[in-house]
Amino acid sequence: MSGMLTDKVVAVTGAGRGVGREIALLCAREGAALVVNDLGTSGEGEGADLSPAEETVNDIRAAGGRAVVNGASVADPKGAASIIEDAVRNFGRIDAVVNNAGILRDRIWHKLSHEDWAAVIDVHLNGCFNVSKAATPYFREQGSGSFIHFTSTSGLIGNFGQANYSAAKLGIVGLSQSIALDMARAGVRSNCIAPFAWSRMTASIPATTPEEIARVERMKTMSADKIAPLVAFLASDASKEVTNQIFGVRKNEIFLFSKPRPIRSMQKGEGWTPQAIAEELLPAFLPSFARPDERSGDVFGYDPI
């Protein structure tokens, strides 16, 4: 290993299993000290079990690394603050925050309850806010720091039965963008990653049609460890010029996503009427419309290498 994170302290949420665990293991191998946070809930956010986080920490220590367990909920502001406090208390500083923790409560829109909406927003969007907010005073004081937030193509592009998750994940992009702009003068950067990886969460994706079954089979070839190198890079000083970006990782591919920008414009000197919009603007804009039924699987329908 190159030791790109030597003397760095990294906090990873949801690091007991899957993508988060692989991130923690690689960051440790690259020289970082880790706060391994995981409440240890079910995929829908129920229950608690510290053993996954403890296993990750034990594996890091067995390999000669440094790590501590944190079992707080990122949805609780005090719990989120304890993640950063554990980093500073045990290792003296905090250099990078990886907001990876998440749950799923997939429901078709007309069956989505307020409880399912709030639970997913709390963990994903509010969790990112809570942990990032807690780290911010330390980042500002030391004049450096890296926020790495996990978004999803479910938010960037769209998916069925995930209104809560999609809204949270696109909200994280907006949050990251604002953090990057507000914190740039303090030397702090903020970026997003949309991961493609087979994990406990993606294993819950329903597959009833041949196309959906094929998509799931493709996902099974995308191991969680493929996400970790980009995270380690973004946590390192080598990424000091990288901020306010949205990346994707799909097996051995790394993507850079565009942000929403105007793609067509039409001006009418005397102003618009509803009828003029229907008769003039709509025919001009229609060829540039995004497909109304497009979702992540349509954009990334080919087999990964």
UniProtKB/TrEMBL annotation:
Domain of life according to the entry: Bacteria
Entries under Pfam families matching the protein: adh_short
Domain annotation Ketoreductase: ranges: 8-204
Family matches, as Gene3D superfamilies: NAD(P)-binding Rossmann-like Domain (3.40.50.720)
Family designation: Belongs to the short-chain dehydrogenases/reductases (SDR) family.
Protein name: NAD(P)-dependent dehydrogenase, short-chain alcohol dehydrogenase family
Organism placement in taxonomy: Bacteria, Pseudomonadati, Pseudomonadota, Alphaproteobacteria, Sphingomonadales
